[in-house]
Specification:
It contains ten helices and 14 strands. It has 328 residues and is of the alpha/beta class. It has two domains: 198 residues, Rossmann fold (3-Layer(aba) Sandwich); 100 residues, Alpha-Beta Complex (UDP-galactose 4-epimerase, domain 1), CATH 3.90.25.10. The strands form four sheets. A seven-stranded parallel beta sheet has the order 3-2-1-4-5-6-11, sandwiched between helices. It has a three-stranded mixed beta sheet with strand order 12-9-14. Strand 1, helix 1 and strand 2 form a beta-alpha-beta unit. The chain is globular. It binds uridine-5'-diphosphate. The site of uridine-5'-diphosphate has 16 residues, from helix 6 and strand 8. Belongs to the NAD(P)-dependent epimerase/dehydratase family. This is UDP-glucose 4-epimerase. Keywords: Carbohydrate metabolism, Isomerase, NAD.
């Protein structure tokens, strides 16, 4: 029988794409999700185990039923701006939920754990291209909570031989090129889907958060990675663990950043439509520039991103945005 993998947040944007790639690789992805921000319509590649990371019994029940060989942990609150206004909820849900999950994993005798971390653990780094050895100095509660979970994994790894791979990435974009799943948040806060909705007339305009940053065009710079490339990296990380190759931390980026204005311009080109834009104030917690290399993931995991160019990501996201939102 095929090995099961427990995918927390498996009904969400990145988790559902990971489930698709896991299934293609011969695993059975079990989507563990409370459906607070995920969509049952996105659970297409294996069973849904509806539960909540704040409810330890529901995690134990999923382990007992499916006996997964590994966990992929995506479920989290992940909005930088909200985390600055409501840090308590971010610390409580992300850290306590992850602690429950990690303890349940160890108690069930499962020893393989892939964790979805973030370049937001780095904070502002003054223009350097981030790598795994860059010191982590988060400037928002979201990044701080994710760094705490990384430390938790190091401690549990040492105490219980919990093998773990940590991926740090930031701006995930695009959608399944087959059009089965894609990005949909309610409310939506991310740059590319918001912009596409503005282009479609579903919202009045995109507000650019800050035009006075110390960057060539005054707007923030981010490194965008295609969600399918990211999902592939997670499966490579899983195989690395199952082959007994040990723990690892990997940054996943393209090494090239794009400003908000550059993303807007590329969206105009891809969609061949004007982008309604208004200029606004900075958003609290935003780093000026976050760009990451991925040399270690390429070297040690054999990661080969194929879709992480801005035109491809926007084309895939545009197809999804027009055709297949789960709910109107
Ligand atoms: N951004 C923006 N307007 C929006 C949403 C985002 O100008 O309505 C900017 C944001 O300040 C950041 C970049 O776009 O510089 C990416 O933001 P997003 O929320 O997509 O991802 P994050 O970098 O916060 O993970």
């Amino acid at each position: 029988m095929a090995d099961h993998v427990l995918v927390t947040g498996g009904a969400g944007y990145i988790g559902s794409h990971a489930c698709k790639v896991l299934k293609a690789a011969g695993f059975v992805p079990v989507a563990f999700d409370n459906l607070s921000t995920g969509w049952s319509e996105a659970v297409r590649y294996g069973p849904l185990a509806q539960g909540d990371l704040m409810d330890r019994a529901s995690i134990d029940a999923a382990f007992a039923q499916y006996k997964p060989v590994a966990v992929m942990h995506f479920a989290a609150l992940s909005l930088v701006g909200v985390s600055m206004k409501d840090p308590g909820t971010y610390w409580r849900v992300n850290v306590n939920g992850s602690l429950n999950l990690i303890e349940a994993t160890v108690a069930a005798g499962c020893r393989n754990f892939v964790f979805s971390s973030t370049c937001a653990t780095y904070g502002d780094q003054d223009g350097v291209i981030l790598d795994e050895d860059t010191p982590q100095r988060p400037i928002n509660a979201y990044g701080a909570s994710k760094r705490a979970i990384e430390e938790m994994l190091a401690n549990f790894g040492a105490a219980y031989d919990l093998n773990h791979v940590i991926f740090r990435y930031f701006n995930v974009a695009g959608a399944d090129p087959d059009g089965e799943i894609g990005e949909q948040h309610e409310p939506e806060t991310h740059l590319i889907p918001l912009m596409l909705e503005a282009i479609e007339g579903k919202r009045p305009a995109l507000t650019v958060f800050g035009t006075d940053y110390d960057t060539p065009d005054g707007t923030c710079i981010r490194d965008y990675v295609h969600v399918m490339d990211l999902a592939e990296a997670h499966v490579l990380g899983l195989k690395h663990l199952l082959a007994g190759k040990g723990n690892g931390v990997y940054c996943l980026g393209t090494g090239k950043g794009f400003s908000v204005r550059e993303v807007i311009e590329q969206s105009r080109v891809v969609t061949n439509r004007e982008v309604p834009v208004v200029m606004g104030d900075r958003r609290a917690g935003d780093a000026v520039a976050l760009v990451s290399g991925s040399a270690r993931a390429v070297r040690e995991l054999g990661w080969q991103p194929t879709r992480s160019t801005l035109p491809t990501m926007i084309t895939d996201a545009w197809r999804w945005s027009q055709a297949h939102p789960f709910k109107e």
